[in-house]
Structures are given as structure tokens and as C-alpha cells.
Amino acid sequence: MLEVEVMNRMWFGSFMIVFLVAIGVWGFFQSPFMQQKSAGNLNTSEEGTSILDIQPIEAGSRPTKQFELTAEKTEWEIQKGESVQAWTYNGKVPGESLRVEQGDLVQVELHNKLDVPVTIHWHGVILPNRMDGVPGVTQDAVEPGESFTYKFIAEDPGTYWYHSHQHSSLQVDKGLYGPLVVEEKGEEPEHDEVFILDEWAVHQDRENWTNMGGMMMGSMQGDGEADTKEMYDTFTVNGKAADAIEPLKMEEGEKARLRFVNAGYQLHQLVFPEGSMETIAVDAEPVQSSGENNVLEIAPGERIDVLYTKGKGDEIIGETPSIENSQDMQIPVLSSDSGGENLQVNAKDTATSKGTSHASKELLFETIPDVDISYDMNLSMGMNMGEGMSWQINDRVFPDTPPIQVEKGDIVKVDITNEGRLNHPMHLHGHRFQVEAEGGGAVVKDLINVKPGESYTIYFEADNKGEWLFHCHDNNHADRGMVTIVDYKSVFSPFELNQKNQP
């Protein structure tokens, strides 16, 4: 038997070598170095209207909420005795919680005290293109010592977040993010909390995922998270891990709106006490929900709000116990007079609620209208000679991925298929789209998590002129190519993609 096992391992090792060499050669010939370059993602011919000249912001008599955010280095303690060199907005992870009311004019002045350029992207917010915070596309990155002021109107209530989009695979990883909550006009929430989930490399080098053998063998197991599991060893909630996570204080029978944001690059599944949780909003859109699910699955970049009801005694909300490092991501829910000792996450099989589980209360399209633009988006993995692994859209890497070219008013259909072995949470800037919900009906979102072998068809209206990113929100995948542009043909970007302007 031992002899057979050795032979099997030798065979598998030989197979892996041949496979990796083959995919490297294939990827090389598919790379932009060996293919004719596409026409480009940005309309830089300077014909039509500059994105700087569309949608002027008029404050009128509406209230203005002003904030200042300073990007700076911070020694951040994740838990007692464990610190990281973080990059932060206003010296903490997450950055300052920005709360505004629907209809407010939001004005945020960014000051850069880092020694690298930064930006702020307002994730999920529908705003003018020039305020989207994408370097080389909607602005030049803010250089060290400089400032930039973002202005937009908070039209739509819900849970959002902000983060740097300059070399975002690194800068978001290092802590440049924070929550943005737009409260419904006249709303006075009694108990309303935001929890931002993330992963950190505290005891290892985050780049060790480039060990292709380990990553590829993990990807063949089919969990879709092999690369992320290689890269990170610590989970956090609001910048803290394990015992350092601040408990949620509630009394029996009390209800609270809990807003969850996944700022990391790994899928998380949070287990709630049975019967305590109801999903009420996904990506800032209210959903029709039942109270039958008590596991919340949240993909990178996604936001999901739940209505939580505190049961009797101390409780805990935490990552599924079977996940490595799950002990780091546990939120104690304690009464005012308790200590919360020996709390355990319920490990039994339970029903899961995720971003596509529930239909939205209001849809973009009651019936799907005639389609003007159709686009097939195939997600896959390849190799770039001398650069390592790449993540591709239609066998190309950004900026050579084929754009989705539209005119204002077009109805756009995108068929997304994941042909690879890893999860790809695809996020569209500047628009909301509609996709079929698993429980029937449809859900309105700005991010769809496409697992290996899955396909989704999304629909949206091209109603916001500009040059808008559509990319994987595992930013490590975006950094290696999985990005395209929704390109309005009647406008152009005056900015240039280069090393200083790197999304």
C-alpha cells in the first residue's frame, strides 16, 4: 500500500508540473504581450465630453455634512501583544464612521500624510464619475502632502463603505477603509451598529500565496478560497481579533440593526443564535426576508444588514467553527451585568442567507426590457511570462480587457461565468444591477459573488455617464488583471493609467 501511495504522489506531482507548465505557456500566448492590444478601455480621443464636465453638483438649500480624513501610518494593535504597521484614515482601523442623512451634500477632504499616493472610493454610492476615486480613470491619485475634496449627494439610504482605490490590493489590505451609513430621512435608529470584517497577515508574509503549488492544490479542493487562505492568518472585526473584539451590549428581547461589511478578500460565514437573525438589506437595498436563516454568508465587498433580536443569556455571533482562524472572528453579545465566559458558536448545520437569497422590495425592472447591449464576461486564470499568475476577463488582463461600451439609456445585459477554481466577487461602480434571486424574484445589487462553475446574468441601465470600473473585489485578483470598464462612448477621461495612477 505504501508503494502505491508513493507512486500516486509521484504521479500527482508530475501531473502538477506538466499542468503548471502548460498553463504558463497557454497564459503567455493569451497575455497582452502576445496578443494585439485592444482599442483600450478609456475613450481618450478627447471627442465628446470630459468626465470633469458632466453632472455638476448643486448643493442648493440641502444640508451639508463635512468631514476630514487623513491617510497616515499607524501602529495598530489587533489584539494584546500583536500589532501591525497599518495605513489608516484618521489613525484607526476602520477609519472614522461617517453617518449622514438621505439628501445631504457630503463633503470629505482627504489629506495624504503617507509617502505614497492614495484616493478614496465610495463603494456602492451612486455619484458623479469624477468623485469615484479611481486613479487614472476618474482622478489623479492624491500625492504625499496633497489634498483632494470629494463631493456627492447621499441620495440613497443604506450601508456603504469607503476605501482607497490606489493600488487597492495593498492599501485596503493595510487598513485604508471605513464605514459610510446613509440614514433614511427622518429615521432615528435606537440601536444601530456597523461591523467591518477583514483578514490580516500578522505572523507571515502576505505574498506567500505566490507559492503556486500550494495554491493550485488548494484550488483543486474546490472551496474557492485557496489563495486567500494561503495569504492571511488572522481575522478581525472592526480592526480587532478574538478577545480584543468589543462586545455588543444588549438586553433580552432588545432588537438592533447590525450592518456587516466585508472589507477583506475572503468569504465569511457568520453563525447567529438560532432564530435571532433576519436579513433586511443587501448592498443598501431593502429585501423581502424570512427569519428562517441564521448563517450569514458575506462576500468580499458586500454589505448585508440584519435585524438581530437578543435572546436569553449571553450569546455569540461568530465565524463558522470549521473555518481556520474562526476563533478570531467572534462577537460576544452580553447583557450589561454579565462577563460572557465560555461562549460557543453553534456548530450544527443551519440554513444560510447570502447576497442572492432574498428578492429586493423595489426592482430596477418589473419585467426585463429589450436589451441594447449584451456582453459575455468569462472569468479565468492564466499566466503572464515573467509576472506570474493573472486573473482574466475574456482571456485578457486590464487595461487590455474588452470594455463594455454603452450609450446613455442603454439596457445592458452581462452574462458572467466563472471558468476558474476561485471565487470572484464582481463589483460594478456607479450603477446598480438586477439579478435573479435564489428564493424567487430578483435582487438589486452592485456586487455579485461568482463561485467556481457558476454563471449569473445581470441587467442594468446605463444611466450615469462616465468611465466606470467593473472588477473583482478580491483586489488581489483585480491587481493581476480582473478589471474592465463600462465605457460611455460619448465621454472621455482626461487621466492617464500609469504606475502613479494604479487602481
CATH topology of the largest domain: Immunoglobulin-like
Number of domains: 3
Instruction: Compute the average pLDDT.
Output: 87
Order of strands across the biggest sheet?
A: 11-10-13-18-15-16
Shape: globular
Structural class: mainly beta
Helix content: 10-25%
Unreliable residue stretches: 1-41, 209-220
CATH architecture descriptor name of the largest domain = Sandwich
Q: Mind telling me the CATH superfamily name of the largest domain?
A: Cupredoxins -  blue copper proteins
Strand content: 35-45%
Q: Rg to the nearest angstrom? A: 23 Å
Distance between the termini: 52 Å
The biggest beta sheet is recorded as: 6 strands, mixed
Which CATH C-level class of the largest domain is it? Mainly Beta
**Total beta strands:** 33
Task: Tell me the number of helical segments per DSSP (H or I, 4 or more residues long).
Answer: 5
Question: What's this model, at a glance?
Answer:
The chain is mainly beta. It has five helices and 33 strands.
Structure notes:
- This protein has three domains: 62-188, Sandwich (Immunoglobulin-like), CATH 2.60.40; 199-353, Cupredoxins -  blue copper proteins (Immunoglobulin-like, Sandwich), CATH 2.60.40.420; 362-492, Cupredoxins -  blue copper proteins (Immunoglobulin-like, Sandwich), CATH 2.60.40.
- By secondary structure, the chain is mainly beta.
- The protein contains five helices and 33 strands.
- The model is unreliable at 1-41 and 209-220 (pLDDT under 50).
- The strands form seven sheets. It has a six-stranded mixed sheet with strand order 11-10-13-18-15-16, with no helix packed on it. Strands 12-20-19-14-17-21 form a six-stranded mixed sheet, with no helix packed on it. It has a six-stranded mixed sheet with strand order 23-22-25-30-27-28, covered by helices on one side.
